[in-house]
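Feature request disguised as a bug report, sorry. It would help if multi-protein outputs had a clear separator. Right now it looks like this:
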Amino acid sequence: MQAVRSILVVLDPEHAHSRALTRAKLIARVTGARLHLLMCDKKQDHNALLSLLSSQLHDDGYDNVSHEQNWKESLHESIIAVQQAEGCDLVIKEHRPDNPLRKALLTPSDWKLLRLCPCAVLMVKSERPWTEGKILAAVDVGNDDEDHRRLHASIIDHGYGIASLTKGELHVISAHPSPMLAASDPAYQLSETIDKRYREACSAFQAEYDISEDRLHVEEGPADVLIPHFEKELDAVVTVIGTIARTGISGALIGNTSEVVLDSLKGDVLVLKSEEATAHLAELARG
């Protein structure tokens, strides 16, 4: 979090009270990040409200504040265009779930934002203060290729950063797959051997990132089920997850864990991307 230098705050034209702005102020107060307020609307002029909010922020001690109203072809494209133009490291947006029928027919705009935005995205879902709360970081210790290792490091760093920012407590979850009788590797045919493998990998992970036994949770099952389960059990205020930012037809059909759990989680969700995905999406956005 300390590395965040510029935050794009997406404001909702239909809701005057912005949870996104509340979170942005908390982060900017500690990091000194610049705040850029964005209103995405093609129908109504919001510049007077944006000017008022900027002025209030300046009076509250936030010296580096700018704002704009913008609209491209869609909400997520508008946000990404401004994020690229302003060079923002973090996008903060309030998440309001689509109704189930609409979500079944159309990919929700927040899913598209999570999938295609080149930088980190914080989806704000709750008004609960983060102060002294539990932070849940989700990693896949079973994937230890270089790209995943860097993504895991980023997830844990951000988790510790938020815990430091809020005087909170970081917990880490790693889900592992169920046994598969058809698996070519015998180690993946028995629950005991899978669990043993993951716990061994987690021991090295714990040592590297200084995570105590009581704050590491390793369980068998799908991540999109276990992450909401542990969020509820721990009463976590924010969950940090990573995404491979899958695009194309496979992304449309399968979805990413971050998208699937977005509506299941009660607290805020910070979604990070691998370096490879970030570079690829930035190239797409520039094109």
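(second protein starts here, but nothing in the output says so)
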Amino acid sequence: MRPLSKVLLLFLFFGSFSLHAQFIPNQDSVSAKPYVYIELLNGEDYEGFLLEQNSERLIIINEQGLEIRIKMLDVKSIEFERAETIKESHYNLQASRYFFGPNALSMRRGEGYYQNNWVFLNQVSFGLSDRFTIGAGTIPLFIFGYGAPTPIWITPKFSMPIIPGKVNAAVGGLFGTIAGEDDFNSTFGIGYGAFTLGNHDRNINLSVGYGMADGVWSDYPTISLSGMARLSKKFYLITENYFIFDTYLFSLGGRSIWSEVSLDYGFIASPQEFEALIPWLGITVPFRFKDKQS
């Protein structure tokens, strides 16, 4: 129970981020203010909506609703950016997934990404609508020889906003086969339901699914508890955790995002055996197709 308790405490931490973000006072009027990035002489940095500025001080309110007062004498630099601009330019396109597993959030219509983890795990995902996402992936083992068994899969997901920007649900799955196998019954997959609390910057997710191999479905569910929190302009803290029978898989790491690429990094381990830490490294390249009607 001790490893499970540690994971649950971590989720309470993420939940405090997610829930607190929902109660920013006068959110409509605040979001109309300029968005600023402030760097102090001591190396600290802050960001948020600018409420007041004069020769002595400035006051901002961050996305958690906390009011921060800063002396102008301590300020090294101030970068102004409109709130709608920052939300678009640093919008976390991959917020609909964690390191690999999905949540109930959706991508916008016409946007997608190519994801590569440790060179061999490849997947492309695309938003056919604001609620329906489709993806396809493979581990191209055929490069090692003609006819080598190569896993390929698709990942459909339908998202349903319950309270827009706060609570979402989704159903989806990962369904695949082994290309190059003589036995055409070599199929695998998982069907799941997901419930996500929070938005694209901070969220926690509970997913429950049942796995399948060669057409036979598991009698026991796979449970996933995951979360992410945006801690700065370009950095997200991520955890993705699985409970399968009596086995726990725990992961913790980060995501650094830029306009043309993002980098995932962290480790995977079983809380029962922390001696074996498996590093995780992935890169994601986003893309967007403009809607001809816009």
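Even a blank line would do. Unrelated, but nice: Confidence is low (pLDDT under 50) at residues 17-25, 82-89.
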